[in-house]
Amino acid sequence: MKKVFILLLLPLFSWGQKSSNLESTIKLNYANSILIEDLKTHIHILASDSLEGRETGEQGQKKAAEYIVNCFKKAGIPPYKCKTYYQKFKVKTKGHLRQRIILKQKNIKGENVLGFIKGTDLKDEILIITAHYDHLGKKGSSIYNGADDNASGTSAILEIAEAFMKAKKDSIGPRRSILIMAVSGEEKGLLGSKYYTENPIYPLEKTIANLNVDMIGRVDKFHENNDYVYLIGSDRLSTELHNISEEVNRKYFNLELDYTFNDKDDPNRYYYRSDHYNFAKNNIPVIFYFNGVHEDYHKPTDTVEKIDFEKIQKITRLIFLTAWELANRNERPAINN
Ligand SMILES: [Zn+2]
Predict the structure, then answer these.
(1) pLDDT tens digits, residue range 67-93?
(2) Distance (Å) from CA 157 to ligand 1 centroid
(3) Any residues with CB less than 8 A from the CB of 43 and at least 6 apart, and which?
(4) N or C: which end of the chain has fewer CB within 10 A?
């Protein structure tokens, strides 16, 4: 990543249009520090055979957690409450039905990995950005690498964390605090996010929104090019959140924001199927970023060479600038009556 701008220029500009243009330039410079080559490095490592599909409770998941911790350390992000990056949980899974496979009840030990970027004048309010880093593990000799699901989203939040931290080091850190949380236990029933919302580190009342990233590295059969992302949930609890998200996209990216799966009658029910739902359940506004399913979904063939890194870069930058807006504006997004 390169050095981006000179803060000393700031007083030379008068308020109004010029300062807002300058603010845009500053934000965009940090967004542009999110690069394909860094995203690639993360995904190659997370989706490698040596991590054995990152099944929650298994060795591969622990290795993935260590990798995420090292990325946080390298970016200069302290652990939450200055002690540990891990929120460990132990849960008994129910013998529930998921993807037509009945899982037997067993004890699972997992951990969420949390990096905390402390805000300035509004530091008591928290924006949470999540992606699950666990996947399905291996069956026999087949490894479920989960490059799209969800090494893609994990790589995105690592780069977002790094970009915010870079701004903070340049003394323009976020006004609100940002909690970057890599979640485990997702594939076994959203367990890590459920544990967090039942045992929150920071008060849920002060949690202003959750942006959740799950599968952003592929193009589905309903789209011809990579200029789109499905958004789910953005308007359900806060129209203001939806409007902010739309405006950031219109101003800087012009991706097609596809709301097909946001329809309340959509039979796929994706709104209930990734970690954001545990926040939404607690009346916290959410946006779920998702590229849709594809022929390799939940198969050993979800591998890194099929990933569209340009797509991940675009969506990651969109999420970063949306987060920037949420973390820095005067008011938190209002909940609908
Ligand atoms: Zn997933």
Answers:
(1) 999 999 999 998 887 689 999 999 776
(2) 14
(3) 147, 151, 152, 155, 217, 304, 307, 309, 312
(4) C
